[in-house]
Specification:
Strand order of the largest sheet: 1-2-3-4-5-6-8-7
Structural class: alpha+beta
Number of helices: 5
């Protein structure tokens, strides 16, 4: 079981904590970099005030977490569990979304964050399924999901209002029995 002390969970290289208004500065910086919009459709805030408001809204969501580095206590990413709906067949299911600052890519940090949040979802929230939607061209996230035990289920073609082409999003599913990591 993941133990959450003071809204913080400790991993080996990172820790997860709830957002605070001051995290708006990092959100604003990410919103100015096109890579985060292209890979994950991260919100593009018009100014710092809007980003701080966004951080305040994230702070109000009980399953939204800032990913912080033990090395420097800096916010280096975010990970969030979303409800999939209120109908009977969607109870005990959720969707995970995540973003990691590109300076920290390919260091195993998002794998650790995803393991922590999946353990939390299964063990503490009682989830039976965790879904993840990833754009078809996001090879690193697709590879990570596969390493974690997520299985490809289907693809949705979304009209892309930002370009003349459709954006294809692949949906992956993780069930407790398919985890390729230790669930404590």
């Amino acid at each position: 079981m993941v133990i959450w002390y003071f809204l913080k969970v400790i991993g080996k290289k990172i820790y997860l904590r709830h957002f605070v208004k001051e995290d708006g500065e990092q959100l604003f910086w990410w919103s100015k970099k096109t890579v985060y919009f292209e890979k994950a459709r991260f919100t593009q805030y018009k100014d710092l005030s809007a980003a701080k408001h966004g951080a305040t809204l994230l702070a109000q969501r009980k399953n939204s977490f800032a990913i912080c580095s033990h090395d420097n206590d800096k916010v280096i990413g975010m990970i969030e569990l979303y409800e999939r709906g209120a109908s009977e067949n969607l109870l005990n299911t959720c969707e995970v979304g995540f973003l990691l600052d590109e300076k920290y890519w390919h260091q195993g940090l998002m794998k650790e964050a995803l393991q922590l949040v999946c353990q939390y979802a299964f063990n503490d929230l009682g989830m039976k399924e965790i879904w993840a939607g990833v754009f078809q061209d996001n090879d690193a996230s697709i590879h990570l999901l596969g390493k974690m035990g997520f299985e490809y289920i289907y693809q949705v073609k979304y009209p892309d209002i930002f370009s003349p082409e459709n954006k294809n999003e692949n949906y992956y599913l993780l069930r407790p029995g398919n985890c390729k990591f230790v669930r404590s």
